[in-house]
Design brief:
The chain is an alpha+beta fold and about 160 residues long. Helix content is about 30%, strand content about 30%. A 5-stranded antiparallel β-sheet has the order 2-3-1-4-5. The chain is elongated. About 35% of the residues are buried.
Length: about 160
């Protein structure tokens, strides 16, 4: 069971948003894994898997977009700390039977704060890129289930949600 904090750490005593001071925290190895899905038709998945989509290699573009986005997370999310990522992977798998592209990102750093937002950002932007790459052939694609799967390191310890 996950213990919930009784206060929001990004709010000061007056209720104003602020960046959390992590200066006193120890550097530790931190890992986060996030996942999301893009729901498509079997025909669109076939185009992606056969690398015949009109805009080119969908998975290569989405993988690079996810990596680039994770590196820019602190520029996108106002109160995120900039992090030096030590590793980031974005994996995409298409299943023609289910019509689902599953996207998994793993972010790692050694630092004072976690990498959950970087992993979630990587998945989100990779999913948006899949959508952009196939929208000419399928307008009704759905991005769903973007979520944190695992988090390791830091004061709150390990969290495994799936």
């Amino acid at each position: 069971m996950i213990t919930m904090s009784k206060s929001l750490t990004h709010l000061d005593e007056h209720g104003h948003a602020h960046m959390v001071d992590v200066g006193g925290k120890a550097d530790t190895q931190r890992i986060a894994i996030a996942r999301g899905e893009v729901h498509l038709s079997p025909a669109t998945i076939d185009l992606i898997l056969s690398n015949t989509a009109p805009k080119g290699d969908v998975f290569a573009a989405a993988r690079l977009a996810g990596i680039m986005a994770a590196k820019k997370t602190s520029e996108l999310i106002p109160l995120c700390h900039p992090l030096a990522l030590t590793h980031l992977s974005v994996d995409l798998k298409g299943n023609a039977d289910t019509g689902i592209v599953e996207i998994t990102a793993q972010a790692e750093t050694t630092g004072k704060t976690g990498v959950e937002m970087e992993a979630l950002t990587a998945v989100s932007v990779a999913a948006l890129t899949v959508y952009d790459m196939i929208k000419a052939v399928q307008r009704d694609a759905r991005i769903t289930n973007v979520r944190l799967i695992e988090k390791h390191g830091g004061q709150s310890g390990d969290i495994v949600l799936e």
